[in-house]
Design brief:
Helices cover 28% and strands 29% of the residues. The protein is built from 7 helices and 13 strands. Strands 5, 6, 7, 8 and 9 form a 5-stranded antiparallel beta sheet that branches. Helix 6 packs antiparallel against helix 7.
Length: 279
């Protein structure tokens, strides 16, 4: 369930239309924008930087309508939607009205409405590639990772490869109590699920595996992270892509490199990133 940032009735003059003469004079266009947004972080921080400003959404509409002439209001709506999605909307509905369209008869309004999804919610983008990190440091860790791989394989995915299981020391916050070593692995897969759909499925697997989210960086029976999802860049309270600390973790980079030696993270070869971290 998401929240909505809405601005309606943004009036802008533009020169758009199929008829050649429509490119020779300015006519009014009216834009409505409804953006699905996660606003809880913005509410807690009281920062507009953690939501979508309706002023920015209006500016997106103005820049498109007052910009390059096009034939169709469908094109205008598509370009406005792309701009709003780039600001972090999970989805957006854009309506472009053309109240003085040359229809040839009396009418109340002419408009086109489109809805577009963000890369993290779009479940119609086809098959995409994801990289997961799995780990555990409580109980029978080897059995936990085997079980996690089995559960992930049962999702709407095709598991491409699973790295060897590697023991690593835990990453602790200053003053944090000692913990057992982790057993970690990296798994790569192809899926038609969206990142948010995959995240929800993985969190359900974690819960079934005994994961309890009491302490950040605390000991755990099972941990599953999305390291990378088809190169998407995203930052929200729910999900950050790529994983914000993946480039700092040899226990992710080295197993990943063992199964995908040519892989990149945020545009950099993971082999080069790992080389900068190696002791």
């Amino acid at each position: 369930m998401t929240d909505v940032v809405r601005i309606e009735g943004v009036r802008v003059l533009g020169t758009h239309g199929v008829l050649p003469e429509e490119r020779t004079y300015q006519q009014p266009f009216v834009v409505d924008i409804n953006a699905d947004v996660e606003t809880s972080r913005a509410a807690h921080t009281d920062s507009v930087g953690h939501t979508i400003s309706y002023a920015d959404a209006a500016a997106d509409a103005v820049s498109v309508i007052a910009g390059e002439s096009v034939n169709l209001i469908e094109t205008l709506a598509e370009r406005i939607a792309a701009k709003v999605l780039a600001r972090g909307a999970l989805s957006v509905t854009v309506t472009v009205h053309k109240p003085e369209a040359p229809v040839g008869t009396e009418f109340a309004d002419a408009s086109v409405q489109i809805t577009r999804q963000s890369p993290v919610t779009n479940a119609d983008a086809g098959i995409r590639h994801a990289v997961l990190g799995i780990g555990a440091n409580l109980g029978d860790t080897h059995a936990a990772l085997d079980w996690a791989v089995e559960q992930i394989s049962a999702l709407d995915v095709h598991v491409d490869a699973v790295s060897d299981f590697v023991g690593t020391a835990p990453v602790l916050a200053p003053g944090q109590a000692a913990q057992p070593d982790y057993l970690n692995a990296v798994l790569t897969l192809d899926t038609v699920l969206s990142p948010y759909q995959l995240l929800a499925e993985l969190q359900r697997i974690e819960v079934r595996g005994g994961r309890v989210r009491h302490e950040r960086w605390g000991a755990r029976l099972l941990d599953i992270d999305i390291v990378d999802f088809d190169g998407i860049t995203w930052d929200s309270e729910r999900l950050t892509l790529p994983h914000p600390r993946a480039a700092e973790r040899l226990f992710v980079l080295e197993p990943w490199h063992s199964i995908e030696p040519e892989a990149t993270l945020a545009g950099r070869p993971i082999a080069d990133i790992a080389a900068t971290l190696a002791p």
